Amino acid sequence: MNIGIVCYPTYGGSGVLATELGIALSKKDHEIHFISSSLPARLDSYYSNIHFHEVRNMVYPLFEYTPYETALASKIVDVMTYEKLDVLHVHYAVPHASSAYMTKQILKSKGIHLPVITTLHGTDITLVGNDPSYAPVVEFSINMSDGVTAVSKSLKKDTLYRFNVKKEIQVIDNFIDKTKFQRTFDIDLKKRYGEPDDIFIVHVSNFRPVKRVMDVIKAWEIVNAINPKVKLIMIGDGPERQKTEDYCREGNCGSIHFLGKRDGIGKFLSICDVFLLPSEKESFGLAALEAMACGVPVVSSNRGGLPEVNINGETGYTYDLGDIKGMAEGIQAIIKDKEIWSEFSDRCIKHSMQYDINNIVPQYERYYKKIINQSNVD
Ligand code: GMT
Predict the structure, then answer these.
(1) What number does the ligand 1 atom closest to the CA of 279 have?
(2) So what CATH class is 2-175+357-377?
């Protein structure tokens, strides 16, 4: 198939998933056309059947805000006209689904049919999409998509609760590539951040308020006060990083390492003992799944799709939002002895296998075929 993929190029979960999906599909001989404002962060190698089309936004003194949606729709029209896509798959509804609708109408006026699939990722429904400044457009463009998928059962439920969506929503979970996420313990890397017998808690996110990064620090403070061998590794960057780092600098920061944005995080996860994700909202929690694939038990909130991924008492523990004390207790229960930790770790690796790329990518391929066939009949 000739597949167009629209996504955000940044380190956010939706862009990461869209890029990994495109790479996986290219390995199955599909022709992939990424359409985005810059080269997706995880598109780090050369693939002969992956093409990148940059959306160029004309800057003009009259514009207080440059009209990205218009530039994106124009770029999709251009790609479709010359590359003859079989299907367009847009990730994150805002504003990609409405640009896709606009494109569909332009192409229709030229007698060209383009099936559009929208994948809902989370905050496009639960935080941004349902803000009154976007909601009517989001609802309309979801309903106008030929196919709609959501990354968890919880997100499907949230979408139906918040919007009047008439389209059938297909749940297709997030996935992981086991060749990138597996336990590959590197003692030298561990020594870079502490002693060989230290215990590392790790958090990976884009440090947006929804991730509740300060809850990570507070839970770690409780555990570290009991056991000073427990260190904390913070990976990623975003709006809350400065504030959090300042707080740590003023206090006992010696045992916290802020690593910023990193590629190849599998090797960092593999030296860690517990992944902490206290998010206010999390439609799935791809970062938690990546940690689990590296054998790292997860302590998380019980919001959104997290309990579908992190099975309470088996792969880690889940707690109510803001229950920092509970999360600290969960960490202590997992790290209190090596045998208990190993049991959690083994179950994480086993559970993560159901989300293997080889199980999930064929679900997208089948869904593409179904929507292409259905929309040709319509
Ligand atoms: O907030 C993020 O982590 C980024 C966000 C995005 O859309 O870029 O991630 C969302 O999509 C991921 C991939 O489907 C999910 O695994 C994350 O749970 C989801 N984030 C939230 O719902 C907050």
Answers:
(1) 23
(2) alpha beta
